[in-house]
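Discussion board: Methods & Data

I've been asked by a reviewer to show the raw model output for two of the constructs in my manuscript, not just the figures. I'm not sure how much to include, so I'm pasting the format here to get opinions. Each protein appears as its amino acid sequence followed by a line of discrete structure tokens. Is this the kind of thing reviewers expect to see in a supplement, or should I convert it first? Here is construct A:
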Amino acid sequence: MSVWKQLLLTLVIVVVAAGLWVRYYPGAGAQLSALGIDWLTFAVAEVSPEQAEQPRRRGGGPQGAVVTTPVVEITINDRLSAIGTSIALQSVEVTPYTSGRMTELLVRSGATVKSGEVIARLDSDAEQIAVERAANALKDAEARLKRQQQLLRSNTATAVQVTDAELEVENARLQLAEAQLALSRRSIETPIGGVVGILPITAGNYVSSSSVIATIDDRSEILVDFWVPERFASAIKVGSPITATSVARPGETFHGVISAVDNRIDIDSRTLQVRARFPNEDDKLRAGMSFQVAMKFPGDEYPAVDPLAVQWGSDGAFVWSVKDGKGERVPVNIIQRNTDSVLVDAPLTTEDEVVTEGLHLVRQGAELKIADRKQAPASDEPPKPVAAESGS
């Protein structure tokens, strides 16, 4: 085949391909208009009233007509759902100060104790003897001081001797106090009030300063720790209300407040630790229970369009909006994709409509023939809450 025939065949193929691209590629008209090529027109078959009543094509409306959908407004980031783990308001493992054999255990598992109450005693014979010895030494030092004071009045003793006797008395008092402290520490007291857990030890056992005698939980209030995504960090404030439900008690909702917010984001999980406080007057809740916590926020509102309305061009995503019966290309920034809607950041309001079917018929500023409108994307169903799984 000669060269000129090859060039002619190539030219024909290019023209046909260009025509098909302009005719069927969404957004081709807008791209040509941007390049200043807006003089190309394409014939659209006239539609008679009888043809308009015929069944619609896959495009959605009669030939030459487009289908539009109203824009709705949807609020996101307005609620938080997370899994948390509870701890007691105060919790302590009671251990003795010193080693020894436990002679008495004065509480039982499940008992309620008060702060400072003695729950166990260790053998204290040696400590009792030390207290009596220190008491005798104090009496002797006081008697010696009294004699020195009498001798000082008769000029038989000096003031230095009286001062030495006074120092001996003070030292004897300190030794007695030390002995009494050692004796008192043979009685094991609870530092907080609460409920005693299962006792891991019984009377007669030898214990050391690291042996746990009992665990005590103050369950007057329950604290729930949970972790939230970092985008909620500025929205959560101490004192904000919060609700929680427990798997162990289905159907019951507990109301509390945020009691503490951590001062930094965890760099590995990009989450923030938050602590909530819930009253527990009826003693229904226990430490270690799992809770589903929920919070509400003002949230962010965005226009939502039908997923079919979103098109893509060389400069990104856009939709065709209907303004005064004419098509208008509106660039959009996609925020969130849902099943039946797409949230976008764009200059759209609830009074606007976007084209969802017959997009190949739309040109910038061209008059549009609009068929019956589709139902707007559901806006009464809230978006799925963001869940932040607890790490504990």
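Construct B, same format:
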Amino acid sequence: MLARHVAPLLLQALRERPVVLLRGPRQAGKTTLVLQLAQEIGARYLSLDHLTVLAAAKADPAGFLAALPTPLVLDEVQRAPELFPALKAAVDRARRPGSYLLTGSADVMLLPQLARELVGRLGILTLWPFSQGELLGQREGFIEAAFAEKLPAFILEPEKRFAASLLVRGGFPEPCLLLPQNRRSAWFADYLETVVQRDVRDLSEVTKLAELPRLIELVAVHSTGLLNHAELSRRSGLPQTSLKRYLALLLATFLLRLLPPWHSNLGKRLVKSPKLLLVDTGLLTHLLGVGEEQLLLRRELFGQVLENFVAMELEKQVSCSADPPALFFFRTHQGEEVDLVLQRRDGKLVGVEVKAAATVGAADFRGLRSLAAACGAAFHRGLLLYLGSELVPFGEKLFAVPLEALWSWGAAPSPLAPGS
């Protein structure tokens, strides 16, 4: 059983908070993880995907909870929003840490009427599809290395080399680990159908579900680009009011992520729109209709998918960090940009640029130099991830780093999975 890096944080949250929510995309492994934890902590497990359990929870939420001992695991809790007021009342009567562990394949915290019920009572963690480190059985050390006072050495291990097949495979457990390559496309098609027909319907009374698949495909085409409501509205044929509502649903069901821009206080004109990201590059390449061979032949598209891949790998590492930095991108109206920016709470930041090339030159560091000038003393260093094999300095605080460092730099063996 592969260990999930969020598991220790989840156990810690259960020791501190009466209610803990583990959210994330459907089929990312939430149920597997909470079943292991339920056995470890002696909790009862119930899934609201079970129609009888769902009916009971909806019919009498307070009575449903009152009849069940704690600790209690409730899987896919977004299917019964009626439970949230009853959960609030139950916690207020007996505020014991670890009473309720909830999972959700839709982000209930984006629904204000539900989020209000558990303010101050709820710990929230996110489980994404497998990271590269989890698949290799190791805990990534990239963020720690990036912020270290002295940049650690990096030796590329041949067995951990990057291959374009990683982009097409993605990180969802079933297509990644269990399915042959020729079955993955069917899995992703079924996955999208399930999310649209079940999770979107649970969240909102959307009358035109047939328009959502087309919108998801458009988002894939524009992945790693700036969110432009007018352009998406024109290309989808949706009014902007409907478009924004649908995008909110794609965010809530973890198909889409928005990467915010980094802003300085120095008066420089910076882009304010967020970037669009797909949650998984296996899903992204399915939507784009490309495989490994097509990616390698279409270098611009390869660069786009690779940037999405790096962004989500860092998102996964941030979500499992005990003291997580914030994740941004940097772009000026003059076109200077850095794909990703990690910023700690003390203000220190690291720029991360992604290049789908085996060789790079001084000109490729233009965006990182612009970021360094914009943030001054807060700039800790700039890292350019590329497809070469050597860590190479390119001036003060600037380094070209092999892409594989993203999951192998300072890596340590993963702890045993719960219940192992």
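Answer (T.O., handling editor elsewhere):
This is acceptable in a supplement if you add a one-line summary per construct. For B, something like: The longest strand covers residues 379-386.
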